[in-house]
Amino acid sequence: MSDHAVALSATSSNWRDDAAGPSGPKPRHMFSRRNIFLYGTLVVVALYYLLPLYVMVVTSLKGMPEIRLGNIFSPPLEITFEPWVKAWSQACTGLNCDGLSRGFWNSVRITVPSVILSIAIASVNGYALANWRFKGADTFFVILIVGAFIPYQVMIYPIVIILREIGLYGSLTGLVIVHSIFGMPILTLLFRNYFTSMPEELFRAARVDGAGFWGIYLRIMLPMSLPIFVVAIILQVTGIWNDFLFGVVYTRPDTYPMTVQLNNIVNSVQGVKEYNVNMAATILTGLVPLIVYFISGKLFVRGIAAGAVKG
Amino acid sequence: MSKSERPSQLFRNLNAKVASIPMILTAMVVFVGGTAWTVLYSFTNSKLLPRLNFVGLDQYYRLWATPRWLISIENLLIYGVISLVFSLVIGFLLAALLDQKIRFEDTFRTIFLYPFALSFIVTGLVWQWLLNPDFGVQGVVRSLGWTSFDFNPLYNSSIVIYGISIAALWQGTGLIMCLMLAGLRGIDEDIWKAARVDGIPMWKTYLFIIIPMMRPVFITTLVIIASGIVKVYDLVVAQTSGGPGIASEVPAKYVYDYMFFAQNLGQGFAASTMMLLSVMIVIVPWAYLEFGGRKRV
Amino acid sequence: MRYKFLTAAFAATVALNFAGPAAATDLEVTHWWTSGGEAAAVAELAKAFDATGNHWIDGAIAGSGGTARPIMISRITGGDPMGATQFNHGRQAEELVQAGLMRDLTDVATKGKWTEVVRPKSLLDSCTIDGKIYCVPVNIHSWQWLWLSNAAFEKAGVPVPKNWNEYVAAAPALEKAGIVPLAVGGQAWQASGAFDVLLAAVGGTDAFLKVYKDKDAKFAAGPEVAKVFKAADDARKMAKNTNVQDWNQATNMVITGKAGGQIMGDWAQGEFQVAGKTAGKDYTCLPGLGLNEVIATGGDAFYFPLLKDADKAKAQEVLAETLLDPKTQVAFNLKKGSLPVRGDVDLNAANDCMKKGLAILAKGAVIPWTDQLLSQDSQKQKEDLFSEFFAKPDMSLEDAQKRFADIIASAD
Predict the structure, then answer these.
(1) Taking Cα atoms as reference points, which of B196, B205, B198 lies closest to residue A28?
(2) A103-257+288-308 maps to which CATH number?
């Protein structure tokens, strides 16, 4: 790559930064009527959004007798971590009484390769669609977008057949491929929009310098697309980690992901529903995507700004 | 590649074509192939295993004579309109509020977005619990002394679908807000200045200037919301299992139940073909207009 | 870099996938027994199988047969079969057998003289397709039971009813005492099962067979079945305040005296047992709702997919034998609350309700169950109808009966 292109990419990095700052009307005094209204609304709405999480946490720290008597919103009188221990390592499904712990590593083993593969494929798709359009490319893209609307349930049977024919049914590789296929439509859309919105001169300059398909992708596009990769990673980690249907249909019990165990714990009612254990299990299962969100919050909006806005 | 050799059309952009093979395979084999396969077998009387034993349109006649399917369609329409309207409106309003150069923007944004990290199964369970008539909101309000308070959407056939929509909105609006916020951030500051100079009120600026400029964001958002609506399944299963009775059934659940519970693949395929057909009628022309003829090298 | 991504991802999957060959006699068994009593029962099967030197790998899938069956079927048709799997015997696995995916057990059956020991004979018949035996029945489950909470009736100040009619008459008193007269959970199969029980009890054995075996739609639309719908209407009114989904939560309402009673199969007994309740003292059971004492011979059976691995195939045979072993049969069925499939086992440990069931079985008052008579498709349509019926107080009886007759007319 030439200096020419480097210079261009340096100037154009400003273009990413404006996406991060607020652009609305300028604020006025701190305690103006407008500010009270503004923050008042935000706080009320935020409370509404936090309420379920609060109830989950509070419930998971109560004992069953207290749940039966009390009010779901009241804080626990006596904090107990027993439901958490039970959810993680003791809750039973059939004969297996090792709670969620069994599924955790399975989920990791499913999520990591699936996220990597699906994003690798989708980013190249988006790049090809944005910068190297060949005849018919748009048709495939339209098919992909329509594919985003097909309920997964409908595709279960054809995919069982496809996986059986290529001999990957029941294997982790098969599941990784399935996740890559179903992540493709939305991810490709985001990547395509992102790459389309990059200044065209960058691409032109690299072409003039003789860089090819992969060269431009690796040396220009990739380094500049951190935000959209963050978005893609967040979407995929959430989607794949939370998936239940594919995990249960295309794997076998020793590789069941955590969500399957969650479903099993929640649906294996032993007499009374143990709401505290259910809630603890629920929070534990959601923890990984939640952490990803809390860490990458700001990058997420910046990436979305770049991937969805210009198109 | 101005002076490079170009033997034929086929080899033009060869690398791009090679790189697109996974996409092409997915589009053709899985989406088109799988769909064609499904449509083909919807004309058969396949039960547990797919068999090519054609029965014409029988499965479709039966489908449209089934009360549960009709209820499912009605529910999907109600759910769809609610999700679409409310997630767009709430998402946009929240984004507009956050875009006022406020403090703690990160905190608020994270709070609104976190439900999206939870799966529909989890969302369904939490809201089933919050809306439980004995333990949840109704029970709590009653125990505070308002004994006639009635809020029991999950066990009331006529409003159960709204109970599900509440949960869906809680889960999904955060993402929509982020998309909208991103869109607002893409608007040039000068536009605001110009509007202010002209003395246009803020709501008018949003409605007539900003929103039209955010068209691409709305398109992406629509794709995400609409594809979510058609696919709604887990949430219903976790929250109500379609109950009470069949009052909160949705089409995707009908498809799944008849394919696998009832072991009547033909019926399930017919239902999914109807779903596909309605999606296609709306999506394909639009997708072509939107994504088809973009001019770029 | 992209290639690196790809190869890395691929290498990762391959490496992770390579968990090493399992010990040759591990056998994965899938089932949907996950409630308290069920899990205790299945542990007995696993214990017996492990004692043979093999290893039972438990593949429980929670959420009742409706959730589990599609997964099992996908795995069998997808070419990744488990070692053995539960189905309700009857017609659920019919097509899998016809497609040649399941293992023929005739040899094992001949060796174990199954035709002599299994009773009633109809059980083995529903495992037999084209003269070959494809499944091992493990228990007899009958739906025809009314479980009543003695404490609830005491609280309401009325005697514990002796039959369905007395029960309906006692409903207002129960309601006045703040008790839900009848618990019917929200899952669709519960409403549909309750109706079938009413059909056999209120309508009688002949009516039941005419509707489900002969599929006589005219009869199903006639006055005798109308009587049954009238009874179902009573049930619907009595059940209207049950705010639970799962069957065992509904049973729990009876156990704790929050509900007066429940129409549920004998598997509910396992829940009473886990809760430490005694039949006769804490709860009362009325087979055939006290009107028509019959027992339906539904139940669970294990099917064995065709496997290539010779060691596993051998282990399948061992499991099949173990399941019918008299000792296993007793241990399993006592925990499960169901009746054993062998007539020659000692069941002194059985409680009152099981003994009532055994007596009826000995009298030969058995009927086939809907799993054996109807396809899953017809069953599902029936479930949809009755779950709607029970949830919608304003659905008229005539309308419901007409739709029922339509389902019977097209049933197969």
Answers:
(1) B196
(2) 1.10.3720.10
Q: Which domains are seen in chain B, by residue range?
A: 59-291 (1.10.3720.10)
Q: Compute the average pLDDT of residues A199-218.
A: 86
* Residue A47 C-alpha, separation from nearest chain B C-alpha, in angstroms: 9
* Mean of per-residue pLDDT scores for chain C: 86
Residue to test with chain A: of B6, B26, B176, B286, most A Cβ within 10 A: B26
Query: Chains with 3 or more CB pairs closer than 8 angstroms to C?
Result: A, B
Q: Which two three-digit tokens encode residue C78?
A: 């997808």
Predicted model pTM: 0.84
* A 86-115 residues with CB < 8 A to B: none
ipTM: 0.80
Domain positions in chain A: 103-257+288-308
A273 and C249 within 8 Å at the Cβ level: the answer is yes
What does the alpha-carbon distance between residue B107 and residue B104 come to, in Å, rounded to a whole number? 5
| pLDDT(A177) > 80 | yes
Kindly indicate the confidence band of residue A305, based on its pLDDT and cuts at 50, 70 and 90. low
Please count the residues of chain B.
297
In one-letter notation, the amino acid at residue A129 is: L
Place of tokens 């009107």: C291
> Degrees (nearest 5) of the Cα angle C199, C203, C204?
100
Integer CA distances (angstroms), A265 to A98, A285, B124, C56, C63, in order? 10, 12, 15, 21, 10
B134 → closest Cβ in C77, C92, C243: C243
Max Cα-Cα span within chain C: 80
| Contact A75/B at CB under 8 A | no
Judged by a CB distance cut-off of 8 A, whether residue C9 touches chain A is yes
